[in-house]
Amino acid sequence: KDPRHCPLCESEGREGGRLALRGGRYGAFVACANYPECKFTRQFAKPGGADGSDSADDGVMGEDPETGLPVERKSGRFGPYVQLGEGKDAKRASIPKDLDDFDLEWALKLLALPRIVGAHPETGKEIEAAIGRYGPYLRHDGKYGKLQSTREVFEVGMNRAVDILAQAANRGGGRGKAEPIKTLGEHPTSGGEIKVMPGRYGPYVTDGTTNATIPKDVKPEDVTEAQAIELIDARAAKGPAKGKKKAAPKKKAPTKKKPAAKKKAPAKKPAAKKAAG
């Protein structure tokens, strides 16, 4: 077989698929001549993955048409993910397991989450569709509804979303575990996954060990990895939160004992008069 023949074009019945070495902003990579119809890419000198590992598919997938930044597939501590750009300002998104035909188009969709479904007809507040640690979900006014698949995140409409949220509220699902607003990379010191979370007293960032409140003038969706690390490190430097000191119990004033009542001496009997002789 011609070593430059593109395996993806062959499997999909496309003609003219030949692989060539290309230079990118972040290094050389192998791509197909039929790009963008063919999304086959590999990092240069990357193992072909004969062992079946997830890292076999790692590499540059293409470029974001809006920013021109490279979109890369990588394998990390928490599984495979896609990354847009480089450095602390890079955007990342985990790759769901239920996507068999994962390509550049899907990568860009994941990186653009959360998706705004629209304004709730009763509250006027926005309904968001996103993917969290526990799978795809809807979020509205601090309450959550579970979606069935990754594709539903991008297909669910307003009527269906309102119905799912109503059912979740009736089941008490609105009080379940909160889903992260945004997931960032690993903290350079603790190694924990950095997440932007909704909280009872406002959104915050956490690495699983330290929680840091997000300033009110910063939208939680706009928090970058660099900002999150700075907030977490600043909070950790202050030490653990000091609990309120319990007030000392008030001492009760000693009760004064009433003096014991004096016992009256028994009355003396009058002496008997002597009888006259």
Number of helices, counting only DSSP H or I runs of 4 residues or more: 5
* Largest sheet, strands/sense/barrel: 4 strands, antiparallel
- Approximate helicity band: 10-25%
Q: Could you tell me the strand content as a percent range?
A: 25-35%
Give me the side-by-side strand order of the main sheet. 4-5-6-7
> Low-confidence parts lasting 5 or more residues at pLDDT below 50?
46-54
The domain count comes to 3
Overall residue-averaged pLDDT value? 78
Radius of gyration: 35 Å
Overall 3D shape: elongated
Cα distance, first to last residue? 163 Å
Which structural class do you get from the secondary structure elements? alpha+beta
Q: H/E element string?
A: HEEEEEEEHEEEEHHEEEEH
Number of strands: 15
Give a nutshell description of this structure:
This protein has 277 residues and is of the alpha+beta class. The protein has helices at 7-11, 104-111, 150-155, 158-170, 225-237; strands at residues 19-24, 27-32, 41-43, 59-63, 70-76, 79-84, 91-94, 115-119, 126-132, 135-140, 143-146, 182-186, 193-197, 204-206, 211-213. The strands form four sheets. It has a four-stranded antiparallel beta sheet with strand order 4-5-6-7, with helices on one face. A four-stranded antiparallel beta sheet has the order 8-9-10-11.
